[in-house]
Amino acid sequence: MIYITQLIYIKEGKHQLFEEFENIALPLIPKYNGSLLLRIRPELNQIISGNIENPYEVHLIAFNSESDFEQFMMDEERKNFLFLKEQSIQSSVLIKGSRLN
Fold it and tell me: Are 15 and 89 in contact (CB under 8 A)?
């Protein structure tokens, strides 16, 4: 099992385009043995401390394997709508990890 955490920063005024992309991409996750565990929009008053910009959204996703994640990233339907992501996302940080017992 691998875990993907993504911090997403949106371009000003492009929230609707981002939502359009998410409405296409997120439902594809289970097709590749994945699960959206959390989708959070943190407010500034919820941040206890930090020295990075507050992201628009934070996603935590689990996939059974690295291969499943790679197949999700190469999904043709998702790729057809990457232009929405490119037009709406200023930047993102993707962190891969595994569960510690």
Answer: no
Domain 2-97 has CATH 3.40.640.10: no
Q: Give pLDDT, residue 78.
A: 94
- Residue-wise pLDDT for 17-71, tens only, equals 999 999 999 999 999 999 999 999 988 888 888 888 899 999 999 999 999 999 9
Q: Report long-range pairs for 19-24 (Cβ below 8 Å, ≥24 apart).
A: 20/81, 20/84, 21/81, 21/82, 21/84, 21/85, 21/88, 24/77, 24/78, 24/81, 24/84
Instruction: Enumerate the domain spans of the chain.
Output: 2-97
Put simply, whether the predicted model's pTM sits higher than 0.85 gets the answer yes
Amino acid in the structure at residue 57: E
If you ran DSSP here, which 8-state letter would residue 7 be given? E
Q: How would residue 89 be classed by pLDDT, with cut points 50, 70 and 90? A: very high
